[in-house]
Design brief:
The complex is a heterodimer of chains A (58) and B (450). With 58 residues, chain A is an all-alpha fold. Chain A has two helices and no strands. In chain A, α1 packs antiparallel against α2. The radius of gyration of chain A is 13 Å and the shape is elongated. The two termini of chain A are 20 Å apart. In chain A, 26% of the residues are buried. Chain B has 450 residues and is α/β, with parallel strands linked by helices. Chain B has one domain: Amidase signature (AS) domain (Amidase signature (AS) enzymes). Chain B contains 16 helices and eleven strands. Chain B starts with 8 loop residues before the first helix and ends in a 9-residue tail after the last helix. The mean pLDDT of chain B is 97. The chains are: A mainly alpha (58), B alpha/beta (450). Chains A and B meet through α1 and α2 of A and α11, α13 and α14 of B.
């Protein structure tokens, strides 16, 4: 999934679901959906913290 | 005369040193208790009765020779969570394909504990790979509740007086939460304070070695033994080791505690009421209890923790999932699979936010000796989950030392836990305050499982 903080939370979840389908297939998708939703929310929330490149390092 | 299984590690070591009890009779007493309680409690994976008795006989001989140079845990039995390498004993991590894996060496912690005279009694139940799939272990306060996880067996065994001390690990909440749910003391030191060499990982930058005991004194004793630099662990801190035991005796000055009201608001009503009562009791005993606000929403801290853990767990289990996916339990499997989808830039940005949050909380901790909050948002729930890690995960994320103290028993018959979080590498302050709080709480509850 491309990391783009401008995406909405739902767009992030859609992207994760696409990636999950591609990586693990439809058989696994239903099992993964709850975790995909929570992960999308987490990544979106983290992405709202804007940091200049010269700011804190990882 | 105190029953042998009631002795703390400190108490047992003292009696052994003074010749009042034999290591052999101590081990035998615990084995008898385990034999009686284990069919119901299910805390153990591997019990090394023969090995423990052999070590106890050797310890007994050393005691009879006398001398003042007995080790601090001479003859004291200990349990290890089943992710720690113990030479000659299976290390299974709750994973079927590892059922017959027997390491040829001890983990760094185990080496130190043996050098301190401890006797390895066996390996305790862990959730699979120390994640969140429910264990078979029961809560020794109520059999219809979880003991928490992932250090499920360690917490249950200590609470049920099967062993005086045990080693666990914490990536989110896996030492403090089972300690709270089981009414015992759980200590998670600063990240890097204790070597993680030869401990099966879940998420490298979040994993901590932790201890489960029935007293703050025992927690300090264990940390004194375990702390220290290990060049084989790249995250091991090369810092001086303070005298943690001296810290306990360093005075009775009441602490400055920062109560976090936004955490209380997230807790269940009974936990919330109990936490306010604990804060009041601490204040009446002389503590300076002030309300502080976290510098960022707790949900952001939890989001950073989640993404970090998922991505790293995905890396740990990339080959395992590909080759033995069906042997994985559902929760760890799902998290590791989704973790594969987290991009590199997303993970890196997460770590930047993590570092910023760490600096902000470090600044907050300059105002007080420790943060004060419930260990968990709830008391032990029913066993389809291992409980809620949201109150413990922040300290794991930021690598801050944290301790859980049993602080009461509710109408459910289940214990409450109170958590203290101190500044990085300031376990001296954390343990000193914990000892003060332990005295103020005067908790005398015990699991009814007898």
């Amino acid at each position: 999934m491309r990391f783009d903080p401008r995406q909405s939370r739902d767009e992030m979840e859609e992207a994760l679901v696409r990636d999950a389908r591609a990586a693990w297939g439809d058989d696994r998708l239903e099992e993964l959906r709850p975790v995909l939703a929570v992960t999308a929310s987490a990544i979106w929330q983290i992405g709202q913290v804007r940091l200049d490149p010269i700011d804190v390092e990882p | 005369m105190t029953e042998l299984h009631e002795l703390t590690a400190t108490g047992a070591a003292a009696r052994i040193r003074e010749g009042q009890i034999s290591p052999v009779e101590l081990v035998q007493a615990l084995l008898t208790r385990i034999e009686r309680l284990e069919p119901e409690l299910r805390a153990w994976v591997t019990l090394d009765a023969d090995g423990a008795l052999e070590a106890a006989r050797a310890a007994e001989q050393a005691t009879r020779r006398g001398g003042d140079d007995l080790e601090p845990l001479h003859g004291v039995p200990i349990a290890l969570k089943d992710i720690y390498y113990v030479k000659g004993l299976p290390t299974t991590a709750g994973f079927g394909p590892l059922a017959d894996f027997v390491p040829d060496r001890d983990a760094a912690s185990v080496e130190k504990l043996r050098a301190a005279g401890a006797i390895v009694l066996g390996k305790t139940v862990t959730t699979q790979f120390a994640y969140a799939d429910p264990p078979p272990t029961r809560n020794p306060w109520r059999a219809d509740r979880t003991p928490g996880g992932s250090s499920s067996g360690s917490a249950a065994a200590v609470a049920a007086r099967m062993v005086p001390i045990a080693i666990g690990s914490q990536t989110a909440g896996s030492v403090l939460r089972p300690a709270a749910y089981c009414g015992v003391v759980g200590l998670k030191p600063t990240y890097g304070r204790v070597s993680k060499r030869d401990v099966l990982p879940l998420a490298w930058s979040l994993d901590h070695v932790g201890t489960i005991t029935r007293s703050v004194e025992d927690a300090a004793l264990l940390l004194q033994i375990l702390a220290g630099h290990d060049s084989a662990d790249p995250h091991s801190a090369d810092r001086p080791i303070p005298d943690y035991l001296a810290a306990l005796a360093s005075g009775d000055a009441p602490p400055r505690l920062g109560l976090l009201p936004e955490m209380l608001e997230r807790a269940q009503p009974d936990v919330q009421a109990h936490a306010r009562d604990v804060a009041r009791r601490f204040a009446e005993a002389g503590a300076d209890v002030r309300e502080l606000r976290l510098p960022a929403p707790i949900d952001l801290l939890l989001a950073v923790h989640r993404v970090t853990m998922q991505a790293e767990a995905a890396a740990v289990h990339a080959v395992g999932i590909a080759e033995q996916g069906e042997a994985y339990s559902p929760r760890i499997r799902s998290e590791a699979m989704v973790g594969q989808l987290i991009s590199g830039p997303a993970y890196v940005h997460t770590q930047r936010v993590r570092r910023r949050l760490g600096r902000q909380v470090d600044a907050l901790l300059e105002e007080v000796d420790a943060l004060l909050l419930p260990t968990a948002s709830n008391v032990a729930p029913t066993p389809e989950t291992t409980g809620d890690n949201s109150f413990q995960a922040p300290a794991s994320l930021l690598g801050l030392p944290a301790i859980s103290l049993p602080s009461g028993v509710g109408e459910t018959g289940l214990p409450f836990g109170t958590q203290l979080i101190a500044s990085r590498f300031d376990e001296v302050t954390l343990l000193r305050i914990a000892r003060w709080c332990e005295s103020a709480l005067a908790f005398d509850g015990r699991s009814p499982w007898d």
